[in-house]
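Tokenise the fold.
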Amino acid sequence: MTQHQSTPLRSFVAGLSALALLAVGLAGCGGDDQGPSRQMDMVTVNWIEGMAMTYMQAQILENRYDMEVDIREVQGGGIAFSSVSGDRDFFNEAWLPTTHEQPWAENQDGSKKLGYTYRGTSVGVVVPAYVEADTFPDLTSYQQELDGTLNGIESGAAINDQMENTLELYDMDDAFSVSAASGPANWQALESAVGNNEPIAVAGWKPHWKWNRFDIKYVNGAKTGHNVDIWGQPEDIFTIVGDDFIDKFPREVVCFLQEFEANDEQVGSLM
């Protein structure tokens, strides 16, 4: 397995307890080989749950299907989509129809959906359960303790825009701003705040392992299904592949990735 960026996930790839997920993608797989290629080039975004699934899939592809896997880690979904329509074979974390609507529309030529990775996503502003804020406007009582900051993820991410639009909706944009940082920096800030019993408000989503580790909650008014013009309805996560994917690889490999689908418990077990 070849990686183009370092990642903390590399340390647990060899001992993945989530190999039980193997069964998720095997039902109905088999048959004669189709395409001859044994070299697969994956792309993943530095979102912890996506990387976990990517490295788990890569290990199964190598150990069970005798594939050679190359992984490129990138900083945003748009880059991942363009990579699949270019020199990468697949990307397993396309949030559709809303979050990745634009990069998907821009890169549909040369790529297509293979199957689901996860069904029924949600996104929103997340706080620890001990924070006495059940609605987004309730955060105003924590303005000083939060230093007027909501912790977002990487610059250009849709959820950062959603948080900013919600601040404007509730006339809170003079009191708060959204701070862009990487996904790992986001959950590390949450981990630090929870460890010190401090208030914090961060961009959050499901699936993600943090729901298994921390007692956290979405705030009403800033989550999927609320203020739907901003936050939208639940989405699904798809695997996006190049147009030649089905003909390029062995049938059992295509079938494994086509039928692979994870749930919250399985994603949490990866970490």
